[in-house]
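Researcher: Following up on the earlier apo prediction. This time include the ligand. It's fe (ii) ion, with the SMILES given after the sequence.
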Amino acid sequence: MLPETALSKSEPTFSLTNFEIKDEDLPEFRDMRFENINELQLDHPGASDEDYRQRRDYIASLSKNFRETGVITDVEYTEQEQAIWRTVATRLEEIQSRRASAFYLDAKEKLGISTERIPQLSEMNKRLNKLCNFRLAPIEGLVETRGFLSWLSYRTMLCTQYIRHHSRPEYTPEPDIVHEAIGHIPNFTNCDFADFSQFIGHGARIATDEQLEELGRLYWFTVEFGLVEEEGELKAYGAGLLSSFGELENAFTESVERRPFDLEQVINTPYDYSDMQPILYVIPSYAYLKETTRKYIESFSKK
Ligand SMILES: [Fe+2]
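Model: Understood. Below is the ligand-bound prediction.
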């Protein structure tokens, strides 16, 4: 049931064997209704910093504009915001050079994501569009699971534009531009990964509540915390790993159990987002993940 999201009755016909999406198929962003966007939580490091709150609200308002106009407004980031980016991106790059998937490292470079400055969604969008027909759309905060995942069925990921608080550059309790651009966005230059994401999106649109919970776990153990085997070595591709110093180092220590990817197991394994991940799953390839997910989502409509 999707009554509160933008996905209206006039949706284009969609099937997993015909998943090309053209610009004219996209629902109107101005129709998106997001009653469930989370406000800044009290445990956020910037919660009692009035200047930070105002700045975050301003950047969020630019994202909101997108739904009225369909045009992404570039953010003129301040020197302080750029400094947070440089600190975090530089430190992550060092760990990523050892731990990240080779594909991811290459994609990051191709998208022009550097340690020097915060990339704009508009510039990354151009490249993503050309490579695998994928899109980014600004959003002003966390959205409820079904609404967020459903947009992936239009090969579109909703992305925040603001950045974490300067007092804790290593930490953010909510997605921010570091998590989006360093964690998620490079993966969408891989067409198998983009297709896989779209299958998850399609699943979210037709899932029962129970299936949606399973999908949430699949998303968690792949898109957020996935490992991949590349030329005999384990590498990280999940955004929660790639955008966190602690998680990325921890993923390869003995305190983590790394299991071969097993869909049935993954969708039935609960997780705790407030702590370091004790279990991670390793996919043999993105193509495998795509095909396994395709079969799984196809089973939704038959149940
Ligand atoms: Fe994420």
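Model: Confidence is low (pLDDT under 50) at residues 1-11.
Researcher: Noted. I'll compare it with the apo version next.
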